Amino acid sequence: MYDLVKAGGELFENFEFKSSVQERFTSAVINSNERLLALQAITAFGRSLTFILPVLALKRKQPGKYVHFVAVPYESLKMATRTKLENAGLVVGETGMLTDLHAEANLSGVDVLVGCFDSYGDAGVADVMKLWEKVFGTRRSRGIFVFDEAHVLWLEKSFRNIFHSVKGLNWKSFLKVVFVSATLSSKLGLFFIV
């Protein structure tokens, strides 16, 4: 069991979860046997903390083992997410780093890669994600993959061809796949609605 309150204490003095639902979902992200998790929660619920705390806890427990991924719909949200993650003490890069000839070296200290949804569908990025073990061996594992504002993925996928390659990203190789949004389809796995 990972100590999420301790991870929260690294960010906020006297940290406590805002609600029991936030605590249960955050714990599920890191401790449950479910690989696919989804959260629909109102603005100001603390959705970002539900994935930032597990990433922090994994970094403290197993430094350098995982590269985590956050996908967002818009460039402005990508920059805001990057800032949140950096303020939490995480080393953040962008998905484009995966297509660099020196991807392995570039990612040596990176905890999280952040990109817009379509960047994960880019042919070069998708190829590296599919061939992860060949590129990184056992040195770095794929950690938690987060789709933030995930409802946009459902809205846009029917008319943007680049999303078709996202489907082929060997999702079982990630530690967890997490969908968070204020408005989300109930067709997903383990689902928390608040």
TrEMBL record:
One of its GO terms (molecular function) is ATP binding. Pfam families: DEAD. SUPFAM superfamilies: P-loop containing nucleoside triphosphate hydrolases (SSF52540). Residues 28-194 form the Helicase ATP-binding domain. This is Helicase ATP-binding domain-containing protein.
